[in-house]
Design brief:
The protein is α/β, with parallel strands linked by helices. The protein has a single domain, classed as Rossmann fold (3-Layer(aba) Sandwich), CATH 3.40.50. It contains 11 helices and 5 strands. The protein has a 5-stranded mixed β-sheet. The longest helix is centred in the last third of the chain and has 24 residues. The chain is globular, with a radius of gyration of 19 Å. It is found in: Secreted. Its main location: secreted. GO terms for molecular function: hydrolase activity, acting on ester bonds.
């Protein structure tokens, strides 16, 4: 359940493009947590689900399981890439839709299998990658042979945004998890990155060649984090943000190392932490909806009316306005520091799949 990349809500129209007749890439695969879950948690036994009002109040299909009032980052990115519709969740995708991509993201999930399990079941990153193998077999069946399927898969964009829950719903919850006793903050980041690297290598083995990995945002500035830790007058919880910085530093190095190791692939790093606003206004310190004790929205209770002015939707997750801003800067960098070595638009344009 988690997260976020703490974002400055700003004018949302920059770079936003209508869906094109022909997508820039044949498919878009998404791995992650509740920042981008679009319904995978709806039918599993967990408290981390968002298939009830007021979630989805601004989404055409209502409460689909997205942990926000409207669209998520990957919904906007799918439109930027030229897809006519959002990428469907693994739990419901079938038929020709499989060929355009799958969203495997699961609320409360992490890089580690045990992360978030105190809330109930979730689909951890390792299982998301296993689910992708199931998708591959279905794509091969539809394409007719392995070579044609491989050409299709090599040209797709693979988007991975995960890791916040490994801190907020694992490391910083010592009553539920032992990791803070077993690892220092630096050691835990190393442990996470080692596991993350293995998952990326597995995806590479399944044909992934254009891979975007997203760093952890300013999770020490999330309303729920500040409520749990107490701010003592500070704007954010600095030790939690410091943990995110350790993780991001190693994740960025992993991208550099894998670009050397996986010669015919290209990975980019999306600097979500750097896109965050370090001096939140009052509208950045609390969510738009009325939160339950666990930080999610109270069912059926009316949220604020000025949703475009809020950074957070509930006590963990960003509003659609924040998602849009982040998607815009992910697709086409506003600053050189937004992505490395280049942005998602440039990644999609690579001809890797043809070599």
């Amino acid at each position: 359940m988690i997260l976020l990349v703490f974002l400055l809500v700003m004018a949302s129209s920059s770079w936003y493009e209508a869906a094109a007749a022909n997508p820039q890439v044949p498919c878009f695969f998404i791995f992650g947590d509740s920042l981008n879950d679009c319904g995978n948690n709806n039918h599993i036994n967990t408290k981390a689900k968002a298939n009830y009002k007021p979630y989805g109040i601004d989404f055409p299909d209502g409460a689909t399981g997205r942990f926000t009032n409207g669209r998520t980052t990957v919904d906007f990115l799918a439109e930027h890439l030229g897809f006519d519709n959002p990428i469907p969740p693994f739990t419901t995708a079938k038929g020709e839709k499989l060929l355009q991509g799958i969203n495997y993201a699961s609320g409360s999930a992490g890089i580690l299998d045990e992360t978030g399990k105190h809330l109930g079941h979730n689909v951890a990153l390792g299982t998301q990658v296993q689910n992708h193998q199931i998708t591959l077999s279905r794509i091969v069946a539809r394409k007719g042979d392995n070579e044609t399927a491989a050409e299709h898969l090599n040209a797709c964009v693979y988007y991975m945004a995960i890791g916040s829950n490994d801190y907020l719903n694992n490391y910083f919850l010592p009553d539920h998890y032992k990791t803070s006793n077993e690892f220092s903050v630096e050691e835990f980041a190393t442990h996470l990155i080692s596991t993350y690297g293995d998952r990326i290598r597995t995806l590479y083995g399944y044909g992934a060649r254009k891979i975007a990995v997203v760093g952890v945002g300013k999770i020490g500035c999330v309303p729920r984090t500040m409520d749990l830790f107490g701010t003592n007058g500070t704007k954010c919880i600095q030790n939690v943000n410091l943990a995110a910085q350790y993780f991001n530093k190693q994740l960025k190095k992993l991208v550099v190392d894998l670009n050397k190791e996986l010669k015919d692939a290209k990975l980019i790093y999306i600097n979500s932490y750097g896109m965050g606003d370090g001096d939140p206004t009052i509208l950045g310190k609390r969510g738009c909806c009325n939160p339950r004790g666990d930080g999610q929205c109270v069912k059926d209770k009316a949220p604020c009316s000025s949703r475009r002015e809020y950074v957070f939707w509930d006590s963990f997750h960003p509003t659609e306005a924040s998602h849009r801003t982040f998607a815009d800067r992910t697709y086409k960098s506003l600053l050189p520091s937004d992505s490395d070595p280049f942005d998602l638009h440039s990644l999609a344009a690579l001809d890797i799949g043809k070599h």
